[in-house]
Amino acid sequence: MNIQLRTLMISTVLGLSLLLTACGGSTSSSAATAIPSTGPVTLELGSAGDNLAFNKTALTVFSGQQVTIKFTDNSTALQHNWVLVKGGDDLAQQVATEGLVAGADKNYLPTDPANIIANTPLSNAGQTVETSFTAPAPGTYTYFCTVPGHYPLMKGTLTVN
Ligand SMILES: [Cu+2]
After folding, report:
1. pTM for this structure?
2. From the first residue on, what is the mean pLDDT of each consecutive set of 10 residues in the chain (161 residues)?
3. Fewest 10 Å CB contacts: which of 60, 66, 80, 111?
């Protein structure tokens, strides 16, 4: 094969691949937004001592990821829980009010769990409680404590990428 023919073949192949790259724009952008393959994750947080606050107010996971939350009640006398709702602060306020109406017998959780993605049981002082769930669609979600008077002080944001 002479050099001229080789050069011609190489430039033809290069030209073709450039053409394919240009046409493949939509393909490469959808690949960039694909869900990363990530394994199960355990996230630990607690109450900020005796304060009505979590010691972590921001958590991040990937959509579709299997998530376990371990919540430790670092207070000396307070009950808490960790509740994740399918929305932001407005929905958290609604669920907190419904939980207050439901009362301690229902762990301060609404009878209808439609707005709740996950929740731990109530914790007593010094106790660690947990819950597992599959991370929902990308977005931001409020987690908070439904023990009366703790919301809106005791809350945080779960970011799902
Ligand atoms: Cu609380």
Report:
1. 0.77
2. 45 41 41 66 98 98 97 98 98 98 96 97 98 98 98 98 96
3. 111
